């Protein structure tokens, strides 16, 4: 028996009792996400604080500052995590808009899902908070655009380009401008609360965008 090796090797019991730092950190991070989202929904963004998030999550505020520099950063990451979890639970592909060969049907399906998300209280409060704060907080505004909005908009660009290749969209059309015909009105109506959000509304946006207003 190698006495020297056995003297220094950890016992199976020691291995089992050693704390899993990675798992503990992930639990803390998830608790912080949930606390940030809950507080924004309950008291609003201005009254949400790092101290409040820490107390709600059961962690020290130094833990939060070790990972994020501000409550805006916490909220943005928490919202991204929430969206990704929801997409996985629904079995949705977050990297592409479905291509069934019917562009109108595909766009309507995605926009209907977007309306459902915007009307969901779990998403509405943090999404509104991030959109509003991003107007006055330049760094958050850039992060909000690059991490949340741009990836979603690129999915529309990719789907419209595929439709161009299939001959369903004019080849000279700019997909980036084209997507604004249905995405921008929906965003404006939601932000300004200027009208009801419904599947019928988004279906109409797609019909107008794809077929225009001229008589057929």
UniProtKB/TrEMBL annotation:
InterPro entries: Homeodomain-like_sf, HTH-type_TetR-like_transc_reg, HTH_TetR, Tet_transcr_reg_TetR-rel_C_sf, TetR_C. GO terms for molecular function: DNA-binding transcription factor activity; transcription cis-regulatory region binding. This is TetR family transcriptional regulator. Residues 49-68 bind DNA. Keywords: DNA-binding, Transcription, Transcription regulation. It comes from the Bacteria. Residues 26-86 form the HTH tetR-type domain. The keyword Transcription applies. Residues 1-25 are annotated as: Disordered.
